[in-house]
Every structure is written in C-alpha cells, then in structure tokens.
Specification:
Two copies of one chain form a homodimer. Chain A has about 400 residues and is of the alpha/beta class. Chain A contains eleven helices and 18 strands. Chain A has two domains: about 270 residues, L-amino peptidase D-ALA esterase/amidase, CATH 3.60.70; about 120 residues, Ubiquitin-like (UB roll). The longest helix of chain A has 23 residues. The model of chain A has no long low-confidence stretch (mean pLDDT about 90).
Chain lengths: ~400, ~400
C-alpha cells in the first residue's frame, strides 16, 4: 500500500468532484460539494447512532437500504436540514433532483448530506441555482477535488483528505480516497459529521459493508471532540469498479483493501481530532491491560471526554491526577493500586501513587502539540485508544455564537 | 419548616465551627475548616462513586462504617490527599490526631476531608501548626461558622450555607444546617466535593442513612458542572441529639425532618450549580413524559453535560437544536416526532419540528441568569431534572491553570 501525499477524492479512476459557493456561508466560502462517478457505484454507509436524524441523512439511508447502485453524493454546509419536519424531506429531494437532472441520471442515484444549524429550512432556491455551475465544474483535477473537500467544511480550519493506492496480489492497482469534515459535535458513535470515500475497486456490497464497519469502529468511532454526537453523521463509500479489479471475500486482496481502508480512516480520524473546534493540541489516549473491551472503551472515553483533562492539557498544566480521576469514574473495574499513567513517555503515576516529577521537564513535554496518554492496568489483556483534542477558549468562542 | 436566611452551620444546638488559614492557599485565604459537636454524634455519609478515593475520605468512610459516634470533621482545601499511597493515610491520621488532642477527644472521633490537587502530599506540619488556633477559635458565633464555610472553598466564588428550623408535631423545634463546597469536577454520583450537615435532632443511624440517601439522590446527585466526578466527594450528617427531640422511624416528625433535609440539600445543590467554575448562568433541565426513570435521568444528564448546549447558553445563542441533539444521543428511547422543547417559557420545538421564533424575543429570554429547559415527551410518566451551569471562557481559564 502506498500512502499518497496530497491525495484527492478523485484519485480512484472514474470519479469527479467539485465544490462551489451557493451563498449559504456569509463570506462567500465554498459550501456545496459534489462527488460523482462515471459508473454506477456499489454503496455502503455507517450513520450516527443519534435517535434524531437529519432529513438529508434519512433520505440517504433509505436509498442505500434499497440496495440499488448510486452515482454520487451532494453535501451542503451551514444548514443541517434537521428538525424541520416534512419540509426537510422534500427540500433534500429537490436538491437531489436538481443535481440528477444536470447530470442526466435519476434522482434516486444522488445521495444527500447536510450539516450545520438544526431547526432551520434549507435555502433550496439558492442551492438549486448553484447546481448547474457545480455540475459544470466537475473534474478529476486536483483543484476541483480539493474544492469538494473545502465545500463540506463547517468550523473546520483545514480540509481533510487522504488516499492510498494498493497493489493487489496480481500486480494490478486499486485506489481509495476520502474527504471528511469535523470538527465539533463529535463523539462516538459516530465521530465525524460527514465523510465520503471513493474507490475504483469492484466489490460486493455486503463485503464492502463489513470492511467499512470494521474500519470505522476503531478509527472514526474513536474520536471525541466534545462528547456530543450529531444528527447528521455519515461515512459513505462509493465503489465504481472502474479499476477492473474485483475484490473477493476472504481473499488476500480483501485483506489488503481492508488494511488500506482502515489506514485512511485512521488518518482522517486523526485529522479530525487535530482540527477539533478550538483545538491547540492533538491527544491520543491508550489503555492497556483492562479486564475486557467494554472497560477499555469506557476508560479511554472518560479520559478523552473529561473537560478537566482537556483544559489542563490546553493550559499545559501537569495536573495528571485528573486522568486518574477520569479512569476512576469511567465505570471500569480495576485495582486503583495497580495503575500506571504515562504522558509523552514520562511516568506520572506508578501503582496508583504519584511519582515525584520535575516541573520544568513536565512543562517541556506538555508544550508539545501531540500529547500521548498511556494508561496501564493489570486486570487483563483488553486494549483501546481514542483520539481527541484539548479544550480552549476558542471552543467556547466558536460554540457560544455558532449560528451568528 | 422555617427556612433561615443567612443560616450558619452552628444553627443546630451544640455545634461550634471555625476556619483559619494554614498557609495552603498562597493568598492567605482560609483553607482549614472544623465543625465539632459538644456531644457525640450519630453520623451518616454518602460518598463519591469514583473507584479511586482520596485517603482522607477513605479514613472517614472506615470510621463511619464502625458505627461509632463521632465529634466532628476537619477539612482542608488545596491538596486532595489522593494518589499518594500509604503516606496519605498517615497524613490524614496525623491531622485528625492533632485536632483530637486539642479538643481532648479520641482521634477516631474526628473525621477528615481534603479537596484540591491530586498526587501531592499534604503539608502536615503547616496544618498541625494551625490546629491550636483553629480549635481555640471554635464558636457558635456567626463569624466563626461562616469562616468554616469559607475555609472549605476551592474555586468557589461564594460560600454555600443553608439551614432550617422545623417545628415538630409536639411543638418542639429541631434545626438542620449545611455547608458545602463546589465548584468543579462535579457530576453525579456524587455532585459536590464536600458537604457537612449538622442537626440537633436525636436520630437513629439507620434512619438517618435512609433520609440522607433519599435527600441526596435528587439534589446533590442532580448537579453537573463538567461531567467529572471527583475522588474526594462526601456528604456527611452529624446528629448530636441536643434538642432532646427524638425522630422516630415512620413518624410524622421523620417526614418533616426528611422534607427539611431535602429542601436544604436542594438549596445547596442549586448554589453549587450557580457557582460552577466560570459559570455566568444557572441552568435547570427538566424532562416530563419519559418512558422510565433511567431514560429520564439519561436525558437530563445528556443535556446538562453537553458542552455545545452549555456554550450556546453562555453565548446567549438560541441554538436549541443542540438540546434536541443531546436528547437524541442520550440513549433514551422516544419518538423524535413527539418531543416539545421549551426554554424559559418559549416553545422552540413542537413535535420535533422547530417553531419559527422571534430572534429578539429569544435573545431577551436567554439574557436572563436563570435558564429553565423543559423537555416534554409522550412515552410515559417518568420525570427527572438536573442543575447545571453554562460553559464559559473562565471555565477554561480556571482549569487550564488549576495548580498554579
């Protein structure tokens, strides 16, 4: 597998993309993105576990559940198209129809995604007016592909793009690429609002479903920015088969393909955590030796979610007792006299007791951008990890006036 | 029951209190508090559910579990006496012994509480040096009692004191009073770090236990500041019987006594939420019509804990979709098309659909200090509520540099 630097969503053969401004964002920034395939695509999706779901997302879930092939997905930002009732359903239909008409395909072949404020109607006229330009600019070129990644951003400060080309067992190549938006209201399950994957592999829908779910489980579903799980989350994979390479269930190629999907998912998950709202630090929390998987997940979740841990890291304050506290209230069973806590290689707690440490050395470690918390228990073999970021003044600023 | 304005912890007969500076806080503020009774007290406690527990707290739990009567409790701030191993146990013993010696009682009659930074040794010498002055100044007077409330504060901006005098069925009076400290690392169970109740009722330990647990369950255990449950939390009741009034299980007096305990607990719980770290708003979240108690609790917890809801309220931004979102991911089962959300009397969502609202009117409502969120479902009869506060820049500031 070759990681592609500066990978674009159009890396896999047969995909085009574009992003334009439909005037939803005040500043004229890109806010409407489109990814389409020349060929019909097998499609698989993973969606938010929030009981409340946005109307654009519900439409996409219903279409994917029919098992029919699709051609692409159109995503707008600024308005979530959620909590507005039946109007929200017809608004999403109108946008998909406008895109489908411009492309000369059926509206059922165009999936929809929306992200932004809840309880506000989509400005359908503005969006449909922008569709002809959006479709006309579709291209395999880097700039157009990059525009799609830019157009789905909300409070993200950088676009999220990743991709890889895999050499299969017979020497032929398959590519996978992804774009995603973070960056707030992020917590398992699901961890990001919207991510779109493309691949030119020829792959059965059921196999693709399995690979996607496994790839997401320890990557996208291990990112927490603020503990809030949004109503619009989805990860969608479009597989158009254009490489001519068929990925068979149980084959070596399926393994290679899954490895690449997982790697790209992890790359994107790390990007989302790094670019969490107001983030100044990337934080990785790992636990070893928990008694079972549930305890391991509870521990990394409690630590990654703790506002006290996150503000201490923002302040570069070695208040490591807060990590011990979070592990203690996580609900996991463990012996508090057998816990070690290491941060960026420095041991702060051994067997539950604070190790005297040099404040200057600790300050130097905590000044780093990447903070790596390792918790070791002696209960069993279970392991888990989570990606998050610190909690800064800017998180409060961004979210105290999100709508305005 | 007569609520006492400006009630002090020495309101019940036979209690004295005091607070002094032992030099633990840099600025010379009070940091060592003591509450003692002339007579031996029946004692009952509720403690943090955190698996990691501070050494001063563990000592208190062990003493209470013996069932023996006690004389009082000494509490220090700034250092939590947690995560320091066996030294922490002997440090707490030394402080209790110093207090006991000054009072002429046994050290097992003096409970201990500590709150502050984890992983740091208590400065025992400083504390024991301050004990003679602490004991000498013990008094029933308001100033001394008030000093005890001041001395247990950490990042609290105001002391928490409440009390009531109850006229029993035979016309005799019993008093109850309480002090508490908040104000961060607060989430059920338990919601406050340390609270001490006094009463001059004569009451059996088992009955007192039951009343305390019930009083705490919907008051202290319904406060969330930041979702973090500390390792030092306790609520302790000292009952010295000096009023001569015996409260019998199953009596009308027991009911009156429990009502007063619950009312005082609620008053203190509201004070703690109002004075949450960096708080500019008090928030009460109520849910009606949930299908069962667990769902009702999950809903108010999710909303009260959501950083997105709390920052929106800080910013006075009517982003009510975030409340809908939090209810949706709470884990509770409900029909998203049958949810109404009202904030300070204004209906924002009816049957899951956003009601068009006047931004100016919404801004006026959200400018109020007290924010009252009411969520109505149509699933059943279950009700719950939670007290919290908003999330401000100051929360980040306070917690980014707590140790310094």
């Amino acid at each position: 597998m070759a990681d592609i630097e500066n990978a674009f969503i159009t890396l896999p053969a047969g995909f085009k993309a574009n992003g334009v401004s439909a005037g939803l964002k005040d500043n004229g920034a890109l806010d409407l993105g489109l990814v389409v395939s020349d060929l019909p695509c097998t499609v698989s999706g993973v969606y938010t576990s929030n009981l409340v779901k946005g109307h654009s997302l519900v439409r996409t879930i219903n279409l994917i559940n029919t098992g029919k092939k699709v051609r692409g997905i159109v995503v707008n930002t600024r308005v979530a198209n959620a909590g507005v009732g039946k109007d929200g359903v017809s608004d999403a239909d109108k946008i998909a129809s406008a895109v489908a008409e411009s492309l000369g395909v059926s509206s059922e072949e165009i999936l929809t995604g929306s992200t932004g404020t809840i309880g506000v109607r989509l400005p359908v006229d503005k969006i449909t007016a922008a569709v002809p330009g959006l479709v006309e600019g579709l291209s395999t070129q880097e700039q157009a592909a990059h525009n799609a990644a830019l157009a789905i951003m909300t409070t993200d400060t950088v676009p999220k793009e990743a991709g890889a080309t895999i050499t299969m067992s017979d020497g032929r190549e398959v590519s996978i690429a992804a774009i995603a938006k973070g960056s707030g209201m992020i917590h398992p399950n699901l961890a990001t609002m919207i991510s779109v994957f493309t691949t030119d592999a020829d792959i059965d829908g059921k196999l693709l479903d399995g690979i996607l779910h496994r790839a997401v489980s320890h990557t996208f579903n291990r990112v927490s920015v603020d503990g809030d799980t949004s109503v619009c989350d989805m990860v969608i994979v479009l597989a158009n088969g254009k490489s001519g390479v068929t990925v068979e269930d149980g084959s070596e190629d399926a393994k290679l393909f899954e490895e690449a999907m997982t790697k790209i998912s992890e790359d994107i998950a790390r990007m989302i955590a790094s670019d969490g709202e107001g983030a100044t630090k990337f934080i990785e929390v790992e636990v070893f030796g928990a008694s079972n998987d549930k305890d391991a997940l509870n521990i990394v979740t409690a630590v990654a979610r703790s506002p006290l841990v996150k503000t201490a890291i923002f302040g570069e304050d070695a208040n490591i007792g807060r990590i011990l506290t979070a592990v203690g209230y996580s609900g996991a069973k463990f012996d508090p006299e057998k816990i070690d806590i290491t941060v960026n290689g420095m041991l702060f707690f051994r067997d539950g007791v604070c190790v005297p440490f040099d404040e200057d050395e600790a300050a130097k470690l905590l000044a780093e951008h990447d903070i790596h918390i390792v918790i070791k228990l002696s209960e069993g073999e279970a392991y888990d990890r989570m990606f998050t970021c610190d909690f800064s003044y800017d998180y409060v600023k961004i979210n105290g006036s999100y709508r305005t």
